[in-house]
């Protein structure tokens, strides 16, 4: 129920933005029914096969999906349905707590967020609430307060997601000719996150975002969603709806992997749309590097200048504060002339690509 005491005052915030903003700022989502897509489905059992050909075929499928879609789904991923069910049950219990409790009790490292505090107009507003929990705090008893039963399940779930994320990251780096240990050396649990999402039903308009269009500012994200649906992604310059699959987890490439791979892997824009009658739950794991890790492209000539995760995150936050929008990777593209010079001086056989800020990524 939208008026439940457990839900944040989303309607009040959205109403205030609507009345105070320039009407030209609000560009409604299309009412046209979106094309439904089936993401590439990859059976990870092949990675542990004794058959070398089966393993190579699975790794190649991951590489192809990351390059062509930026999104794919995996089955036989090693996370049991029982663990997912337990985590979902605890997640629902947490979000059903009174709003005042979630907002003030400091649970999960005081990471509760709702709506979009930086929004200046309706199209920047997300009709959702979430707990964005650093992995380093998942085992901290002090973070759970009255939600004591959540801790044991969350520790187990976070560990399983972390293991899977590192496995996939290793395959993706190996496919580009590097050792699996590259991501182990770059990524750091202190900057990885587990995010618990809740999208309350939104009966007032089908044109309100559950989560505004964005790309992820990490190496990769693993998403565990329910069967309500609502996830959409940009494919071939149009929005398509992702069909839920109860047996699969969704994996998507983040900005850092796109930069590191020199645009071979794609960080694709995606969003969540609201549902008038049904609430939606999802769980996301974000694989991130240490803040001072240098995110240089794995080969030359590089499309992007080198930057650290801290520099990238700070730039994203500054852009959002100033404009309400994330700019992201275009901020770190090398100037065309510098890129041409590097390409000319390079002895690499890498295919030449002249970047364009307006090009679709």
TrEMBL record:
It is an enzyme of class 1 (oxidoreductase). GO terms for molecular function: gibberellin 2-beta-dioxygenase activity; metal ion binding. It catalyses: gibberellin A1 + 2-oxoglutarate + O2 = gibberellin A8 + succinate + CO2. The keyword Oxidoreductase applies. Residues 188-289 form the Fe2OG dioxygenase domain. One of its GO terms (biological process) is gibberellin metabolic process. Keywords: Dioxygenase, Iron, Metal-binding, Oxidoreductase. Its EC number is 1.14.11.13. It comes from the Eukaryota. Pfam families: 2OG-FeII_Oxy, DIOX_N. Belongs to the iron/ascorbate-dependent oxidoreductase family. GA2OX subfamily. This is gibberellin 2beta-dioxygenase. It comes from Corchorus capsularis.
């Amino acid at each position: 129920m939208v008026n439940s005491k457990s839900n944040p005052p989303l309607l009040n915030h959205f109403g205030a933005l609507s009345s105070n903003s320039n009407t030209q700022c609000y560009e409604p989502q299309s009412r046209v029914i979106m094309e439904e897509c089936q993401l590439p489905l990859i059976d990870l059992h092949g990675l542990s096969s004794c058959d070398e050909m089966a393993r190579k075929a699975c790794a190649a499928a991951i590489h192809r999906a990351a390059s062509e879609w930026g999104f794919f789904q995996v089955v036989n991923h090693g996370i049991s349905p029982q663990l997912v069910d337990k985590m979902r049950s605890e997640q629902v219990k947490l979000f059903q707590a009174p709003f005042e409790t979630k907002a003030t009790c400091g649970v999960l490292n005081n990471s509760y967020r709702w709506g979009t505090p930086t929004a200046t107009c309706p199209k920047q507003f997300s009709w959702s609430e979430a707990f964005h929990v650093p992995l380093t705090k998942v085992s901290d008893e002090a973070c759970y307060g009255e939600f004591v039963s959540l801790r044991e399940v969350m520790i187990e779930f976070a560990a399983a997601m972390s293991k899977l994320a590192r496995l996939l990251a290793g395959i993706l780096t190996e496919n580009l000719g590097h050792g699996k240990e590259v991501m182990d050396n770059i990524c750091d649990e202190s900057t990885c996150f587990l995010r618990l999402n809740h999208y309350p039903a939104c009966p007032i308009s089908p044109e309100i975002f559950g989560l505004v269009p964005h790309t992820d500012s990490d190496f990769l994200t693993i998403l565990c969603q329910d069967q309500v649906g609502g996830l959409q992604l940009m494919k071939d310059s149009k929005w398509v709806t992702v069909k839920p699959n109860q047996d699969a987890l969704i994996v998507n490439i983040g900005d850092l992997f796109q930069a590191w791979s020199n645009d071979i892997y794609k960080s694709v824009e995606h969003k969540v749309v609201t549902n008038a009658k049904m609430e939606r739950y999802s769980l996301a794991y974000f694989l991130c590097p240490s803040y001072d890790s240098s995110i240089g492209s794995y080969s030359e000539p590089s499309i992007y200048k080198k930057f650290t995760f801290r520099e990238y995150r700070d730039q994203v936050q500054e852009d959002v504060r100033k404009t309400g929008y994330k700019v992201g990777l275009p901020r770190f593209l090398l100037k065309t002339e510098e890129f041409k010079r590097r390409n000319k001086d390079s002895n690499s056989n890498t295919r030449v690509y002249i970047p364009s800020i307006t090009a679709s990524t």
